[in-house]
Design a protein that fits this description.
There is one protein chain. The protein is mostly helical. The protein has a domain at about 1-30. It contains 17 helices and no strands. Helix 9 packs across helix 11 (about 235-260) and helix 10 (about 220-230) packs antiparallel against helix 11. The longest helix is centred in the last third of the chain and has 31 residues, at about 370-400. It is globular. The N and C termini lie far apart (about 65 Å). Mean pLDDT is about 80; it is low at about 35-40 and about 415-428. Keywords: Membrane, Transmembrane, Transmembrane helix. This is DUF2157 domain-containing protein. It comes from Hymenobacter jeongseonensis.
Amino acid sequence: MSRKFLETDGPAWVAEGLISEAQRQKLLARYPPEAQALGLLPLLGSVLVGLSALSVVAANWQALPDALRLALLLGSLTGAYAAGAYFLRRGNADLGHGLIGLGLMLFGASIILTSQLYQLVGYDVSGLVAWVVAGVALSYVYGSRLLVLLTVLIGAAVQTYCVQALGSFSYATAAMVAGGMGYYWWRRPDAVSSTVLAAGLLWQAGLLIVVLQAKITWFFVPAMFIYAAGDWQPNRAGGRALQGPPLVAAYLFMFGLATFGETDTYANVLRPPLLPYLGALGAVLALSVAGKRARGRLDTLPDWLLLLPGFYLPGGLPLAVATLVVLYAHAGSVLARAHRQEDPNQLTVGAILFVTATMVAYFKLTWAFLDKSLFFLLGGVLLLGLSWYLRRRNAQVLAAVPPVVPPASVPPAAPKSSSTSENRLPND
């Protein structure tokens, strides 16, 4: 239920006598009006004006004197921050944070253009790391989800540049994103920021695996460490949001094993040394179990089914059956948890996972039985068509029934006066 729904349908409820006006006002008080978001027109207009100015400057950049270039960079940077602070003081948080984010982007552009202007050493990434530091600092100062998103994206861009252009991994960048933004997430476990941070950290972990040229399954050790951090978060919604991207990555990997898992062919890519890998993953599992026990979330322990190292099995039928069993067990655990908690969203997710596992099993194990597949296809189409027809017919029948008008309320009968009986003589 929302306030808008109460405002539109509430007067009709009062008129029909379902609730009183006082009750409607109490319901409205439980859903205070949301703060009016600033329209996108001023923000889009500012962006277009800024892009126009940038295009003019870029077209004549090489012809401008060095002093004028620096003045333009410093002026645009200072102007963006000043305008953002001004609108924040005026109460326009959306536009203010947008301009602060624009200033952060201009700060990075100033670093790059200044390096080109003075022909600084191209393999020094200290300036780009300073860009990440500025993003972390602004995120703490203003507490904006937009700045968190920009900082994580900047960290991913800087790390990608280091890996692709320089062939090295910037541990300082990874530490700033993981440590700085991780502490921010711990203090402010917003669902959107948690998801963005987890995705950014997974990107950092993937680039580290690429630089180290390690087996790709080592990726799941830091990925599940991120998952374990979500188990220790007191805010359950924020913790589950952080765990979403690692679980998606683990599920996609298990899905790929079930569908294309010929590990004998890709053994040199998937199979790390057994004992070190299981030891590292077991340590993360122990940390996760401790967090679940401390926060009372042991019902989510079946999430770890997706991390069973089935890629050590030989390829072909054994691996296909093992991974399908894991997918079914994981889907069943999600459905069971959804029924216990009466969570419709989790119930939908569990149903989708179960159907996905069934589709994988069907196409992986019974694809050769074309006659059976056609039988199942026709049967499923008929059942779906029958269900649609019955629902439509039911809706038509209900629409044809006239609405039941409640009977008019009869005023209670007036109590009989006792004055007559009191004044009546006993012999009357």
